[in-house]
Amino acid sequence: MQMNLDEKLDLLDRIYKVYDEFARNLDVACKRYCDSCCTRNVTLTTLEGYKIVECLISDGKADLFNSIRKDLHKKRFQPTITTNRLAELSIAGEDIPDERSRYFQEECPILTDRQCPVYKVRPFGCRCFVSKHSCGEKGYAEVDEFILTVNNIFLQYIEHIDSQGCFGNLIDVLLYFESSEACRNYREGLLNCAKNNLMSNRSIPALMIPPEHRLKIQPILKALLSL
What are the domain boundaries of the chain? Predict the structure, then answer.
């Protein structure tokens, strides 16, 4: 049975809670005002973007759209592949696009006083970005391989439940939903991803779990499947 948007948003909340429980026990350096990773490279699904826009409007922060639009001319990472498309290519043994050279270090346009104004509904791309040491001090993040595997699984699940939606840069997704007509179209399942610099989401073809992590990840898979 196909879920409606409210059911998908509720499921997204529960997926976030499962991850937050997992992340609570991680030994990471991330803390308040640690904003080195808050760049224009954040990607997300339309389901997550819709949730953020709802929050901006209900909290009286719609003026942040002006901040986003003001910096629209600045370069930003616009992905050419979704997580589940990556899984499809891996299964087929096809070449994977190398997108590393397309990242830019400009600050996230909605960051305010070094804090995120939508932190409570931040997308998974922000939620899962953790590091063993301060990124600001060393200039890069250090993430355990198992955490990367866990992150990929959650990215796959979130894309899967929004498989009729789109995927792209946070800026492109939020500006798309600034229009009430776009929000209505999304609720009705009428989206044109390519027209809006976005890519179509896909269902999970297979979970990307390396052999060495298959046993350790079972509790997390069980928690996700129970949803």
Answer: 5-225
- Report the predicted TM-score, pTM, of the whole model to 2 decimal places: 0.92
Instruction: Give, in degrees to the nearest 5, the angle at Cα 136 between 133 and 139.
Output: 85
Rounded Cα distance, 161 and 205, in Å: 13
Task: Compute how many other C-beta atoms are within 10 angstroms of the C-beta atom of residue 158.
Answer: 26
Instruction: Tell me if 167 sits within 8 A of 43, measured CB to CB.
Output: yes
Q: What is the C-alpha to C-alpha distance for residues 71 and 112, in angstroms, rounded to an integer?
A: 14
Tens of pLDDT along 39-98? 888 999 999 999 999 999 999 988 999 989 988 888 888 999 999 999 999 999 999 888
Tally the residues of the chain. 227
> Are 107 and 39 contacting, i.e. CB atoms less than 8 angstroms apart?
yes
Please state the separation of Cα 71 from the chain's center in Å.
20
Q: pLDDT for 113-155, tens place per residue?
A: 888 899 899 999 988 887 555 656 666 566 689 999 999 999 9
Write b or e for each residue in 193-215: b if 16 or more Cβ atoms lie within 10 A of its Cβ, otherwise e.
beebbbbebbebbebbbeeebee
